[in-house]
Amino acid sequence: MKRSAPPPVWTRPTGYALKQDPVSGVERADLAIVGGGFLGLSAALHAARRGLSVRVVEAGRVGDGASGLNGGQVIPGLKLEPEQIIERFGPARGERLVGFVSTLADRVFETIAREQLDVDHARNGWIYACHTRAALDFAAERDRQWRGLGADVSLLDRAEIARLTGAEGYLGGWIDRRGGVINPLAFISELARVCAAAGVRIAENERAAALRREGGGWRIALNSGGEIQTPMVIVGANAYSDGLIPGLARSIVPLHSFQIATAPLAPEQLAAALPGGQSVSDSRRIVIYYRRTADGRLALGGRGSMAEPTAEADWAHLDRALGRLYPALTGTTIERRWFGRVAMTPDHLPHVHEPETGLVTAVGCQGRGVGLMTALGPELVDYLVDRDRERLPFPLSPIRPIPLHGFRALGVAAAIAWYRTLDALER
Question: Which residues form the FAD dependent oxidoreductase domain (predicted)?
Answer without folding.
Answer: 30-381
